[in-house]
Structure formats: C-alpha cells, structure tokens
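Final report, Chapter 2: Outcomes

The project's central promise was a pipeline that accepts a single protein chain and returns its three-dimensional structure in a standardized token representation, suitable for archiving and comparison. That pipeline is now operational. To close this chapter, we reproduce one record exactly as it appears in the project archive, with the input sequence first and the structure output second.
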Amino acid sequence: MPQDATIEIRHNPSLHYAALPPRRHGRGRPSRGKDPLDLNVTLRHNRLADELLLTAWMSGERTPRTGTHHAVLPMTGQAALRGAARLRTVWQKRLVRYQPAVYDTDGYDSAPVGGFPLADSADLSGLASVTGPLTDELAAEGFDLFDRLLDGTSPELNSLRAFLTDVLGGERSLRVSFDSDVYLPWPMLAIDPETGDNPWQAFLGHRHQVEQTGHSYVASQKQWKRRVPQPVTSLHTDSTLESVGRAPEVRKLLEERSSLTVCTESGPFLEALSGAVLDDDVMYFWCHGHFVSNGSAHPHLAVRLSDDRDIDAELVKRHRRRHREGTGRFAPFILLNACHTGQAADAPELEHLGKAFVSLGAEGVLGPQIEIPQVFATEYAYAFLELYLTGEHTAGEITRTLVHRFAEEFHNPLALAYSLHCGIDSTLEMAS
C-alpha cells in the first residue's frame, strides 16, 4: 500500500535565491556612488535541543557571489543568552557606573565616594584618559562573545567563521540584518580589536549599519495619505523627566519640525492606540523602563509614563487586536528612549515590547540595551530626531553616524548600546 513520505528540511541551500529583493530606500535619501552591501544572518534556536543554527549570505546588486554558509554552533542558546547578559552587565558596571579608585593614607583601596562621572555628561572628552582604556576593554569583551559564538572545528563552522570574519572585518560598510531567535546586543559585539589600530573600529555597530529582526508577523495596513504637510509625531513622557538634559530642546525640535501630540499618561496613549488609524510618523517615548515580575523566573519589560500603569507588549497588542486584519493604520518609527527597551526578554515565550510594536506595523523600534544615563539619552534623542526628521537619512545610517559622532567628538561609546529592532531602511516620507 503506498504511503506518503515524511520529509524534514533541516537546511534550504536555495534560501538566498528565493529571498525577497533588497528593500528600497524611501524618498529623500542622498544619492551615493556606491550603496553598502547587504549581509544577511539568521540564527535559529532549536529549543528542544537548545541548539543554534547560523546561516549567512550576501545579497545586493554589487555583492560578490560567496554562496550561503551555515553551521550548527557549539554554543547553546542558553549559553548565548548568558553571554549577552554578561556583556550588558559589563557595559553597565564598567562604563555607566564607573567610579575612580580611591586609596586611603596607607595606599589601600577604599570604597569610592560620590557619583558616576561617566554618567554625568554626554561629552566625555575631558575624561578620554578613562574612556580610552574602558573602550579597549569593552571591545575585547564584545570580541570574546563573538569568538565564542563561532568557536569550533567542524569544516562547516570553519568556513562560516572565515566568511563572517572576512566580510565583517572588511573595509566596506555593510547593511547587516540579524534575523535571530536569540536576541544578542549585536552592535556591541566586535571583531578582533588586535587586528586594527583603533578599538572603536572593532565594534560591529561602528563598522556597519545593524538591525535585529527575528520572527515577526506584521499586521497589514490600510492605504493612507498624509493629511497634513508636516510629519506627525507624538511624545509619550513622564512629566518628571521634562527638564532633564536636552529634553526641553527635543520637545521644541518636535514642535517646530512636526505636528506634535504630547501624552503624559497611559490612558490617552492607549485610547489613541485603540483607534483604527494612527497618523504618527514618529513616536518618541521619553520615560522609565523597568522589568516587571510576572510569577515566572523571567520578569518582562514595561515602560511607564507619569501614572503608575505598566505599558508592556501584551497591553499594546490587546489594544490593537481588532485591527489585525488590515482595517487600521499603524506604521510609525518608534524611539523607545527608556532603560532596557532595546533588550529582549530572557525567555523566548515572553514578548519583547519592541517586537510587539513591529508586529503591529511599526517600521522599526530603536532603544537602549542597558540602563542609559538620562543626560546622554536626551543628547542621543536630539541628535537622532534632528537627522531623521529631515527625511534624508535612513535609521540605519543615522545610528551608525551617531556611533561615530559620539566616539569622535565626545569620546563616549554609549551610542553603541542603542539597538535597532527592524527599520534599518526606515526613512521619513516627506509630503510633496
């Protein structure tokens, strides 16, 4: 009696040939003689075996034909998550909470006294003698995680490691998309800093435009035409933060360059989110982010405005559930300028806030991987929005530009802590 054969496809060697064409940039992007090449990396996690499969290939009109490289990694998914958590902790302790050594009269270490000098200002050029060695250390830590992720001796892994080392360490800047089940702080990872003269150039976020995608169903959107000549923006904030750093200047920038709505409590935000059409081109959250206990071993991320309601992934999805079938419009670029908002949950089953926004239709979400000093956060927000509101640059271009700017002008590596969740090619569509 004939029977149907059961076939399990573990790897599709024609995947890169069947992929969608490279995304086109929006209007207003400056023309260039050569666009950056595209590197695509997928990292799949077999949760039952806790096994990681990494696949990488190049795409784009000027891309050399290097084929597809894939290998099972010796590092488990849980080990990768622990490595990512450790790297974030090192950045937090060594950079944000840095305190100079204090010695007593006998020359012995004593407890530091005072605040955190590297968190008091965005401009650390006066402390370059401190941030220089710290940047060396952070680059070494970023390379350590990158190196351990690809450590192994199989022929497939040797080929994959050589390919990634070559393209990520090459002279050309790439547009890199990490489609990963395991969320890692990719801009903070690094190639071997010993191979170059400048440790800043070892970081992936310094060398390339980087985004993390991951599996996301994106809700279909209604066709929509701009009803006002200016971009539409919204500021969602905790009123206690309105005078911190450059926060007043950020608000003024939004008022002058866009049609701005300000929201300080969760009620009006959730009411607007429940409506069919949100005109927002940019949503800016300037508030507090924190992890909320939920009865499991893995607390989840939430943000809070001036009131005491936690806004998390499940809440925002619930308020747009009725518009999942293309009956609504929600396609903003979102800057989540609150602590940890660029970081995914420790457990895959816990939805990440940024991923939830993307699944609802957001073009991309940008947020920090660690607890960012408030003064720096306002400086970064002003610099990002000033460029994005021109409609002339993509989010990926801007994030890399700001890494360079803060490194060169301020000797501050914290721009590397900001991570794009989708949206590398997002650009503001200006009304004609």
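Archive annotation: The longest strand covers residues 37-46.
This record, like all others produced under the grant, will remain available to the consortium after the project formally closes.
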